[in-house]
Amino acid sequence: MLNNKYTIDLLAGGIDGLTVCYDIDDKFFQTIDGLVAHGQIQTTVRVEAGTRTMFKLHIHSVGWVSVPCDRCLADMQIPIDTNDELSVKLGSEYSDEGEVVVIPETDGYIDTAQFIYEFVVLSLPLKRVHEPGQCDEATLRALNSHLASLEDDEDDD
Ligand SMILES: [Zn+2]
Fold first, then answer.
1. Are 71 and 140 in contact, with CB atoms under 8 Å apart?
2. Which of 16, 105, 121, 139 can bridge 90 by disulfide, Cβ–Cβ 3.0-4.6 Å?
């Protein structure tokens, strides 16, 4: 049902051009299992109604998130600025497998939270490491000695 602020009722009248703005913070990221636990993002969702059953959501997110550095595992902030489109169709049963998300016509609403999250994560660079010299040296040393002790254990076998 329409139980959270990220839900958009596609059957509501006059929805074409509807624009919704969200201030997204840690609370949002903590409700979704995944890579990102912290962040501060402003997201705008604009609805474009095509036919009676086809919609396009234009989702724009700006801000930052923090994710673990690939090298030292300490959190690092990454700026976010991503513009995405989500095609939505009313149909018989829910599906988000293909290019078009299908929403049951009997429900008529879409929860945009998961999609906002996925677009933010997809916009992250593949390689996420601190600038040279910015890594957490203490963690790196601890990691290295942990790896070394793992290797020692293997030698014992
Ligand atoms: Zn690092």
1. yes
2. 105
Per-residue model confidence as pLDDT tens digits over 25-78: 999 999 888 889 899 999 999 999 998 899 999 999 999 999 999 999 999 999
Q: How far is the CA of 74 from the centre of ligand 1 (A)?
A: 6
Tell me the CA–centroid distance for residue 139 and ligand 1, in Å: 9
Residue 140 lies in a domain: no
Contact of 56 with 85, CB cutoff 8 Å: yes
d(CA 155, CA 67): 34
Q: Which DSSP state fits 113?
A: H
> How far away, in angstroms, is 131 Cα from ligand 1 center?
8
What's the one-letter identity of residue 61? S
Asked whether residue 139 is domain-assigned, the answer is no
CA of 122 to the centre of ligand 1 (A): 20
* Centre of ligand 1 from the C-alpha of residue 142, in Å: 13
Gap from CA of 73 to ligand 1 centroid (Å)? 6
Residue 26 included in any domain? yes
Q: What's the total number of domains in the chain?
A: 1
